[in-house]
């Protein structure tokens, strides 16, 4: 079935097609449409799922983790401050090895307050043990939820997963989406294969440890599971392509084969980046784009292969780690450190609070790479007109004062 639906509805369809058993929910802009849709489907008898509105995101994720270990396929969703409110339980649920799926609809964090997206919310969770998959389109929002269940429930992995999509720019954008047939999804996912905890089924789980060596062992097992997820991603995406005719990879390469310079991006602004790449190609500028779909596990090998032989890489971060710079830039730099002939790197901060990058921004990024400018600080992509707006609003805030 092809339909024109929002990114939020596409994510909800992923949960519906996965035949989730339980959805503990709590509303927060801009993800509320997801849980509203699931609640209505449950009320109308279109899905056989128990939907429970909790008193907070912390309780929501606690219930989700417990239900996943009790034998239920679980879905939930949150955004921004809600993800932070649930933060304590992120580490618990991953330590429990509970393979649920949670959609995060990215929104900038207060203060100052904004409803538009950047990625500091979801990237704050990158060390929690959750898998992370980042959708560029509404179709990918649906597909990523299905893939996240397949990968999370893989016996080599058994970890919870976050599927991220940009608030407003993707969550409320309508695009044509191919909604798969239920029988095909059943073939791809199968029934939930995690046995409920019981006296007869007590896997080794580090809920409470008193010895540092035991704690170290269990924490490292989460890391090992993330490494196993690299293989699970490859297997799941190949199977997905065979059934549905679409292939997602840990990283996507766009016009990279003969490129001298690369942009590295993630999420929905990658579409804008691709448009800029195509336009620069028309001017004989050899540039390509690498989009990260999986951020945990971080696809180190695939990234190293994708950038081999390139002259320079511009990393576009829609986030900011104060005192350090771009988060993804640091991850890319770490992945490439020590590799023979690694290309030079440049860091660019843009898209904070939903600020849309322009063609001029991307041209500037490539210009910096070409000029071989020393990179001691990230470049903030902010124009003269942006600064004029800041000065105007500052003047209003100060009631005409200096």
Structural class: alpha/beta
Outline the biggest β-sheet: 6 strands, mixed
Count of individual beta strands? 15
What's the pLDDT, averaged over the residues? 94
Distance between the termini: 59 Å
- What are the secondary-structure elements, in order, as H or E? EHEHEHEHHEHEHEEHHEEHEEHEHEHEH
Report the uncertain regions: none
Radius of gyration: 21 Å
As a percent range, the share of strand residues is 15-25%
Adjacency order of strands in the biggest sheet: 9-11-10-13-14-15
Helix share bin: 40-55%
Number of helices: 14
What is the overall shape? globular
Write the layout of secondary structure elements.
Layout: E1 2-6, H1 7-17, E2 22-25, H2 32-43, E3 50-53, H3 57-69, E4 75-78, H4 81-85, H5 87-96, E5 101-106, H6 120-123, E6 131-134, H7 138-152, E7 161-166, E8 174-178, H8 182-189, H9 212-244, E9 251-254, E10 261-266, H10 269-282, E11 287-292, E12 294-296, H11 300-307, E13 312-317, H12 327-336, E14 344-349, H13 359-371, E15 379-380, H14 384-397
Parallel strand pairs: 2-3, 4-5, 5-7, 6-7, 10-11, 10-13, 13-14, 14-15
Antiparallel strand pairs: 1-8, 6-12, 9-11
Short descriptors:
six-stranded mixed β-sheet, 14 helices, five-stranded mixed β-sheet, 15 strands, 402 residues, alpha/beta
What would you note in describing this structure?
- The protein contains 14 helices and 15 strands.
- The strands form four sheets. Strands 9-11-10-13-14-15 form a six-stranded mixed sheet, with helices on both faces. A five-stranded mixed sheet has the order 4-5-7-6-12, sandwiched between helices.
- It has 402 residues and is of the alpha/beta class.
């Amino acid at each position: 079935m092809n339909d024109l639906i929002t990114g939020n509805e596409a994510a909800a369809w992923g949960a519906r097609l996965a035949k989730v058993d339980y959805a503990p929910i709590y509303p927060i802009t801009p993800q509320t449409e997801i849980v509203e849709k699931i609640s209505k489907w449950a009320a109308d008898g279109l899905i056989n799922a128990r939907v429970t509105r909790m008193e907070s995101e912390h309780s929501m994720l606690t219930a989700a983790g417990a239900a996943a270990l009790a034998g239920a396929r679980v879905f939930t969703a949150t955004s921004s401050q809600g993800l932070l409110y649930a933060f304590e339980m992120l580490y618990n649920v991953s330590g429990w090895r509970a393979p649920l799926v949670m959609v995060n609809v990215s929104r900038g964090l207060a203060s100052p307050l904004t409803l538009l997206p950047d990625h500091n919310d979801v990237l704050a969770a990158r060390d929690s043990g959750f898998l992370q998959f980042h959708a560029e389109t509404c179709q990918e929002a649906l597909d990523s939820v299905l893939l996240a269940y397949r990968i999370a429930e893989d016996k080599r992995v058994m970890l919870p997963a976050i599927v991220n999509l940009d608030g407003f720019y993707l969550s409320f954008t309508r695009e044509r989406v191919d909604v798969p047939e239920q029988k095909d999804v059943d073939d791809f996912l199968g029934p939930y294969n995690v046995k409920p905890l019981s006296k007869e089924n007590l896997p080794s789980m580090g809920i409470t440890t008193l010895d540092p060596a035991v704690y170290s062992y269990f924490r490292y097992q989460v890391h090992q599971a993330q490494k196993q997820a690299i293989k699970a991603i490859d297997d799941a995406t190949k199977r997905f392509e065979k059934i549905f005719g679409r292939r997602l990879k840990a990283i996507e390469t766009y016009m990279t084969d003969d490129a001298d310079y690369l942009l590295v991006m993630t999420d929905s602004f990658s579409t804008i980046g691709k448009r800029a790449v195509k336009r620069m190609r028309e001017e004989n500028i050899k540039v390509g784009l690498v989009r990260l779909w999986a951020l945990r596990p971080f696809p180190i090998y695939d990234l190293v292969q994708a950038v081999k032989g390139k002259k320079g890489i511009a990393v576009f971060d829609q986030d900011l780690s104060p005192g350090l710079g771009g988060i993804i830039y640091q991850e890319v730099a770490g992945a490439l450190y020590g590799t023979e002939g690694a290309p030079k790197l440049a860091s660019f901060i843009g898209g904070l609070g939903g600020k849309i990058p322009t063609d001029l921004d991307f041209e500037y990024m490539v210009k910096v790479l070409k000029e071989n400018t020393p990179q001691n600080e990230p470049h903030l992509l902010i124009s003269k007109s942006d600064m004029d707006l800041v000065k105007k609003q500052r003047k209003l805030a100060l009631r005409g004062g200096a």
